[in-house]
């Protein structure tokens, strides 16, 4: 890993999936001796929830597994994020398309799907839980925990 690695998780609203990824990954990262060399953030492709805390249902589901995310506040992704971050990880194909549409041609970082870090996964998208029931938030956590461990393993190889 280089001296510092910056990771940005992106979904649509930045109130359900990407703050969940932010909290899960950051908490698992904290167990690593090289944690201080990695910075984590999250953002949304949309602007509806700028400044808002994570969705209460996402917070409750995360808290049941010991993750705290109440302190996070939503922001919108910017073209400059592609220069600031080494990894820009989209939760689903729509988010990825929105990111590709705003990425400056000269930017160093290409966005990719978070679940593409799971080579054997048949699931490519973290499904949007916003309009569904409680189980959707559990599925989000299951997928995000798996992909976070895959990302940690990749970073560890070069740590
Ligand atoms: P997220 O979920 O992209 O995982 O934060 C959503 C949050 C809000 C909306 C859609 C999805 N919304 O339509 O406001």
Task: Give an overview of the whole structure.
By secondary structure, the protein is α/β, with parallel strands linked by helices. Helix content is 38%, strand content 13%. It has five helices and four strands; from the N terminus they run E-H-E-H-H-E-H-E-H. Strands 2-1-3-4 form a four-stranded parallel β-sheet. Strand 1, helix 1 and strand 2 form a beta-alpha-beta unit. The longest helix has 24 residues. The protein starts with a strand and ends with a helix. The site of 4-nitrophenyl phosphate has 10 residues, from loops.
How is the secondary structure organized here?
Blueprint: E1 5-11, H1 17-29, E2 38-44, H2 56-64, H3 81-84, E3 87-90, H4 93-102, E4 111-113, H5 134-157
Parallel strand pairs: 1-2, 1-3, 3-4
Helix pairs in contact: 1-5, 2-5
Bound molecules: 4-nitrophenyl phosphate.
Residues 11-17, 48, 128, 130 line the site of 4-nitrophenyl phosphate.
What are its keywords?
159 residues; alpha/beta; four-stranded parallel sheet; 4 strands; globular; binds 4-nitrophenyl phosphate
In short:
This protein is α/β, with parallel strands linked by helices.
Q: Main sheet, how many strands, which sense, barrel?
A: 4 strands, parallel
- Mean pLDDT level: 96
H and E order = EHEHHEHEH
Strand proportion, as a percent range, falls in: 5-15%
- The helix count comes to 5
- Structural class, from secondary structure content? alpha/beta
Low-confidence stretches are none
Distance between the termini: 5 Å
Shape: globular
The small molecules bound here are: 4-nitrophenyl phosphate
Count of β-strands: 4
Using only C-alpha atoms, the radius of gyration works out to 14 Å
Strand line-up across the major sheet = 2-1-3-4
| Fraction of helical residues | 25-40%
């Amino acid at each position: 890993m280089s001296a510092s690695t910056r990771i940005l998780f992106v979904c649509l609203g930045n109130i359900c999936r990407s703050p969940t990824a932010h909290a899960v990954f950051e908490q698992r990262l904290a167990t690593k001796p090289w944690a201080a060399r990695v910075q984590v953030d999250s953002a949304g492709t949309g602007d509806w929830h700028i400044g808002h805390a994570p969705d209460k249902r996402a917070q409750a589901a995360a808290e049941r597994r010991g993750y705290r995310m109440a302190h996070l506040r939503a922001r919108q992704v910017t073209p400059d994020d592609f220069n600031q971050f080494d990894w820009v990880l989209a939760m689903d194909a729509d988010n990825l398309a929105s990111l590709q549409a705003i990425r400056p041609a000269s930017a160093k970082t290409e966005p990719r799907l978070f679940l593409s870090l799971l080579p054997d996964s048949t699931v490519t998208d973290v499904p949007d839980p916003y309009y569904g029931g409680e189980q959707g938030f559990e599925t989000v956590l299951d997928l995000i925990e798996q992909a976070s461990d895959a990302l940690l393993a990749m970073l560890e190889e070069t740590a």
